[in-house]
Structures are given as C-alpha cells and as structure tokens.
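Known limitations

Files may contain more than one protein. Parsers should not assume a single record per file. Below, a two-record file is shown to illustrate correct handling: read the sequence, read the token line, then continue until end of file.
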Amino acid sequence: MTDSPDAATGSVIRILLADDQALIRGAFAALIGLEPDMAVVAQIGDGAEIVAAALHSRPDVALLDVQMPGLDGLSAAAALGRQLPGCRVIVLTTFGRPGYLRRAMEARASGFMVKDAPPEMLIDAIRRVHAGLRVVDPALAAESLSLGESPLTAREAEVLVATTDGGTVAEIAHRLFLSEGTVRNHLSSVIGKTGARTRADAVRIATERGWI
C-alpha cells in the first residue's frame, strides 16, 4: 500500500487503485496522474487490505479489480459500501462476464468496466461516478439482462467453488462441514441448473457467466 501525501483534500478526486498486478496498477496510476483534477492516494495489491487502506486514505473513488488474493473485488466493494459509503466504486475486470456485472451492482458498485476499455473512457467514468452517476458497459448490461439472475443458491455456489480445488466429495464435505450426501445433492442440483454434463463443465459454465 502506498499513500500520496501531497494529494489535495478538496481540489482533486482522490482515488484508490486495487489490482494484484503491479504493472497494471502502475499503468493506471500513470494515466490518472496526467489528469489535473485527480490524484492516486493508495495502491493495493491484496484485496484483504482494501478496506483498511480506504479508511486510512479516504478516497472519493476506488477502482477495484474483480480477481485478487485475500478478498475479491466484488466482496471488497460490498465491504466499502458498508464501512465507507461515501466512496464510489468502479469494478474493473479482464473478463466481461455478465454475472460479474449483476454481482457488482448488488454490491452497490457505481461502475463496471472491462480493463481494455479506452483510457479516456476510464477517466470519464471516474469523473461521472464521482459526480454521482452510474457507468456500466452497455454490451455487458444487455447480456446480463438476457441471462437473468444466477440460478444457483448461495450454498450451491459455495459447493461448486469448493470443487475448483479438486478433491473427492468426502474431502469437499469435510472442508465445508457438510455431509457427503448434502454435497452430492448440491452438485446434482448445480449440474441440472447449468445444463452441464459434469462437475468440471458446471464450473466452466458458472465461471464464464460470472455466477461464481
């Protein structure tokens, strides 16, 4: 985590950057540094540090990557909404998965963009979100509406995520403090709801759609 002690407190938009790839953080920081009305006040590489860094640096806008160690960006967005409601959140992702968009909105994020968007769009999004507007990729919004909400329950999603680490049903059951029969029932339900043929296929489908 790094702070910018020279950032003005009222004349600029204070920004927190969170991405586990230092190169991407540096590129975003350099881009934002070219704008006279913006200043990066914190850079985070671990999702578990986001809330503490935000409470310390008091950003106006937080740019959060979806996939980070410690705590993913969607969970961090929800936590910021509870603990620092004045901070607007833009969720950034490499993968334009419609399910991510829906989950970002449920986490009360103000914006959702893919990382390969033109730089001027990101800068404009920061200003718009800071002004109280919402910025969402229109193509992802349309796809998200067409897919609808995730059909998986919270427990089904948890069991499916647990399968991504491999292991037998018994091992998954032990890890989640469930019976083997319960795990099998959840996996059977997940396979049915996703239209998959196998557990691995269900993981692929749910991941592509941003449901897990």
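...continuing to the second record:
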Amino acid sequence: MSVRVLNIICVALLAPALLAPSSQAQVSLTPQSLPIALFERYLESLRQQAGIPGLSAAILQDDRLVWDSGFGYQDVDGLVRATADTPYPILDLSQTLASTVLLRRCVEMRSLELGDRVRRWHAQFAEDTTTVAQLLSHAASDGGFRYDTGRYANLTTVIEQCASIRYPPLLSFEVLERLGMADSVPGHDLSDGSANRRLFSSTTLDRFAVVLRRVAVPYKVDSNRRPSRSDYSRPALSASTGVVSTVRDLARFDAGFDVVLAPGTRERAWRAGSAPMGLGWFVHEHNGERVVWHFGMARDAYSALYIKVPGKNLTLILLANSDGLAAPYKLTDGNLPSSLFAQAFLQLFVS
C-alpha cells in the first residue's frame, strides 16, 4: 500500500483527536484515556493496512509505564500473539544504548573527551580527523550528515579501549542489569557458537537462551500484505546493532535514563549540532517541543521506533517483526514526520 493511501487513513483516524483540546497531553494518562484509546485504534488499523504481522507498543509518562500492548502475531504459523513481553532484535536502537554506555563509562569518568579523534582509541579507523562526537552524531569530518551503521559500529572499539573491558559484558552490566532489563540480550548471536559466549557464565547464557527462543519470527510482506517467513542473519553485538529486547524492557531503559546519566550529559546527548542528531539520538522539533528519537530496520525482517518528548516526559516505543515501521519512510535522513506512526503520536499527545 502506498504512503499516500496510508496518509489518508491516518488523517481519517486522527480527525476526532484534531478537534480535541490541544492541552490533553498535560493530563495524567491511563489505558482508558481518549488519546491512548485513539492511538491504539490507529496502531491496529495501520498494522493491518501495512501487513505488519506482529507489533508491540508501550507509552510512558513521567517515567511510568502507562500503557502497553501487543497486536497481531509474533509467530503467524504458530498463532502466537505478540505481547508487550515479546522479544525482538532492536537493530539501530542499539545505538542509543551504546551512546549511554560511552557517555557514562568513558565521558563522565573522564577517561575520554568527546573531542578526541576516533583514531586515538581505534588506530585502524579509516578517517584521520573524525572525532568521537562526530561519530556518535553520524557526522562526517566536514560537518555533513552521513547515517552509516557500519561506520558507527567503530565505537565498539572506542568503548572497549576507554573502559578496558569487552563491550557485551559492559553493556550488560551498565545498562541491562542496572535497569532490570531481564528480557534483553546483549547480542542476538549468543544463541550460537559466538566467541562472545565465553564472556558470560553458563547461568547467564541459559537465561539469554530462554529469551532468544521467544524472539518474534521475522517476516517479509508482499504487495498484497501477505507475510512469509524470512531469513534473518543474526548479527554480533556492536555499538550499532545486535541487542534483543522488549518494549517493556526498553520502557525500563527509558525510565532509568535519568539515573544512568547526569543531567548535563543527558542534555548534551539530546542537543543537535549541524547534523539532525545529538549523541546517539536523532533530534527533531514539533510545535516548539524537542523530540529525541531513533529507529531500526532490517529489510524484510524487523523494524523499531523510539520517540521521546523530554519536555513532556512522554515516550513511545514500537517494535515489529516486519520492516513496516521504517521501510516506507525517510528515517535515515532524520525525517521523523515522514512516519505515520510518529505523526499519530505527536498529533495525539504533543500538539
């Protein structure tokens, strides 16, 4: 289905909300709140129209999970419904976790400066003058914007060098364990013979295996919205990708973000420069409100969207087992309004 047709659907569904008072986002949200009821209706309709087999969603307000739900199936053939506890590869959303680890363990502990050249910490990095801050922002050394997941993955070596510890256990300790993200795994490849398995105890690996067995099945969706099971090459963990999580666990990350990073560091991460990104987060403005966000996409397999409005302490997290949350849109350009999911959330809860 074309983006134009989906836009028509979006406008039709949002019409009642657009007539409502613009102050509704200031009230305390509950699962029965009108904005959430409308948003839930929109999500289910868009999921069906886009042919997304399974979708999990969560909304937080004031660092509290106020609503979560699953739509469709995490396994179509097995008729296993998607829930808020369904694990998915979170793809590029892994970058926000890596940024958090680097800022906490390296910058706040003063072992690394954001103005350091990447080559100080990663001698094999191809670019001579690029700084750590530029790499975190997907900015080229000349100031241009270049979203490149492979390039961002070089931060893995930077983090390991400045922290003097391998990245998988560091991420596990600094974020997943610290924030109680028990249904998250630091590397989708930990279910196979990955060398990273040696970094964890057998008890921890057994816990990871239970989560990985529940990961949503990846699907390719044809032009008639028919899903077929697809192949997904499980990537090793890097600063750029590899984490498996659930919307409820990502809600724990969101609620704990203020605890993990100092206010000044957090503000710096959410401040865009010449590129449409801060440090590991895209930055956008909607009706005078700053919006920080990120997305993830594996073609014909999975997608993700994470939107946070700091001024309203409001967050949306979406995970899906097809590429429908991201593929139709221009998210790699930093164009958040191109997403109908983002449009609905911002219109209902922020405008």
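Parsers that stop after the first record will miss the second one. For reference, the second record is described as follows. The chain has a mean pLDDT of 91.
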